[in-house]
Amino acid sequence: MTDPRPPTRPDLLAAGISDDHIRAAVRAGDLVPLTRGLYLSRADHDRLDAPGRHRMRARHVASKLSPGTVISHVSAATLLNLDVWNIDLDRVHVSRAGPHGRRTTHLHVHATTWTDGDVAAVDGVAVTSPARTVVDLARSRCRDQAVVVGDSALRTNPATSDLLPDTLAAARHRNGTVRAAAVVSFLDALSESPGESSSRVRIAETGLPRPVLQHPIVVRDGRRFRLDFFWGQHGLVGEFDGTGKYVDRRDLVAEKLREDAVRDLRLEVIRWTWADPARFDVVARRFERAAARRSTR
């Protein structure tokens, strides 16, 4: 999906729309301010999710940056089309060489140093590279937020995996590098969604065995499936059901038939949703009960 081009106040004035008409359109809800002097139509605003709207603001900020200042952190992640989950998007993040940063209501300027390969370009906008973006967020964000971004980077930019060790080493004198190293070692390109990435973190935190991701199986009628999580030694399958996974009843019926076919291989299936990661001990108990049932067969 191509992003819309949000008009600025000068764009609207040049099109013959006065400030009075702009204010009236905002009051009526036909125009939605993204930030001071930048707008989206109501239709475009509602079509974009929160990271998409942040991406519009980041591009607007980038158009006003001085040379050497680069879109970074979560703002770079949105421009790189990486998965972003549960990270505050109020401020656009930028980085520049120097000893001091600053923070305002809508902008966070990070002081940094640069090494070769740290900066990339997305549609003419200077952003931190996928590897640098992952390391910056792994240093500064909580584990599951960083893993969601990092798994996405490895999945969509396979070369990132080879670049992360050097990028991490270059950050060794910055705050949070020990935490970042733990995140980087945990990343897995086979994790296909924010829900699966967050689930992996919770699985590790609760002490459950590490599962195999996207394990392929062939059911008795010859159909082939991939399993979100598979614990072969326990004969267990784990499935994360994200919001919107079943867009209509036919999807739900198809998934039920798929699960029946998996169970017909004498495998136990446990499922969880976005409501469960916050209390993953409930899922851990489901795992334990399913493993106990499987062991008595």
Structure explained in plain terms:
There is one protein chain. With 297 residues, the protein is an alpha+beta fold. The chain has three domains: 1-48, no CATH class; 49-189, no CATH class; 196-295, Endonuclease, Chain A, CATH 3.40.960. 44% of the residues lie in helices and 20% in strands. It is built from twelve helices and twelve strands. It has helices spanning 9-14, 19-28, 42-47, 50-62, 73-79, 130-140, 143-156, 160-170, 177-186, 194-205, 249-263, 281-295, and strands at residues 31-35, 38-41, 70-71, 92-97, 102-103, 107-112, 119-122, 125-128, 212-218, 224-231, 236-241, 268-273. It has a four-stranded mixed beta sheet. A hairpin with a 2-residue loop joins strand 7 (119-122) and strand 8 (125-128). Helix 7 crosses helix 9 (177-186). The longest helix has 15 residues, at 249-263. It is globular and about 75 Å long. The mean pLDDT is 93.
